[in-house]
């Protein structure tokens, strides 16, 4: 059974190893921040609402099987920060770069990965790193948000904190039969 670390928890999935990681995260772990745009195998044309960090690299979870994720470190939007304090999260709110919000988790994950490797990206860098198709058209504000997040990450600017989430990911998650927490030895 595929084992991996998800949001710092060692996990073993009692699921078909051919299942897309996206479905395991959403349906077995109740980590519904990672969005699905539909299509066969979970993959569609949204450009990356399903983005997660795999060993620090932003990848589309609809295109990775559990078998391919074996042994990897997975970070979903719920694990990016415990209190929405990641600079990208703060800047997205500050710049009002969210409308319906469906594409937002994937964008935040892609932007976080970009800033990790390039804290001062150009507009072209940002456009290249964020392939998401946002039907609400937040692109101009999104660019400003990522630029601001870069300045915040470099401590050249600060943003007032956004409100804490109304419910924690732990509280939201219920015991599910297809999920086991692996005890460290
Ligand atoms: S769900 Fe993966 S690209 Fe849309
Ligand atoms: S904010 Fe609605 S699809 Fe992007």
Structure report:
With about 180 residues, this protein is α+β, with helices and mostly antiparallel strands. The protein has two domains: about 5-80, Roll (Ubiquitin-like (UB roll)); about 85-155, DNA polymerase, domain 1, CATH 1.10.150. The protein is about 35% helix and about 10% strand. The protein contains eight helices and six strands, in the order E-E-H-E-E-H-E-H-H-H-H-H-H-E. A hairpin with a 2-residue loop joins strand 1 (about 5) and strand 2. The longest helix has 15 residues, at about 140-155. The protein starts with a strand and ends with a strand.
The ligands bound in this entry are: FE2/S2 (inorganic) cluster
Question: How would you characterize the largest beta sheet?
Answer: 6 strands, mixed
Class inferred from helices and paired strands: alpha+beta
Helix content: 25-40%
Alpha carbon gap, first and last residue = 18 Å
Please tell me the CATH architecture of the largest domain by its name. Roll
Estimate the global geometry from the Cα principal axes: globular
Which strand-content bin applies to the residues?
5-15%
């Amino acid at each position: 059974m595929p084992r991996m670390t998800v949001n710092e928890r060692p996990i073993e999935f009692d699921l078909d190893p051919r299942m897309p990681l996206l479905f395991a995260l959403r349906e077995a772990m109740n980590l519904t921040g990672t969005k699905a745009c539909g299509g066969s195998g979970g993959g569609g044309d949204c450009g990356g609402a399903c983005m997660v960090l795999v060993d620090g690299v932003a990848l589309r979870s609809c295109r990775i099987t559990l078998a391919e994720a074996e042994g990897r470190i997975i970070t979903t939007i719920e694990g990016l920060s415990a209190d929405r304090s990641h600079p990208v999260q703060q800047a997205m709110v500050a710049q009002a770069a969210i409308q319906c919000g469906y594409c937002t988790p994937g964008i935040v994950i892609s932007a976080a990965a970009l800033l990790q490797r390039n804290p001062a990206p150009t507009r072209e860098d940002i456009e290249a790193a964020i392939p998401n198709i946002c039907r609400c058209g937040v692109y101009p504000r999104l660019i400003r948000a990522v630029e601001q997040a870069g300045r915040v990450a470099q401590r050249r600017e600060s943003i007032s904190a956004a409100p804490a989430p109304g419910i924690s990911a732990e509280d939201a998650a219920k015991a599910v039969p297809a999920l086991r927490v692996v005890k460290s030895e």
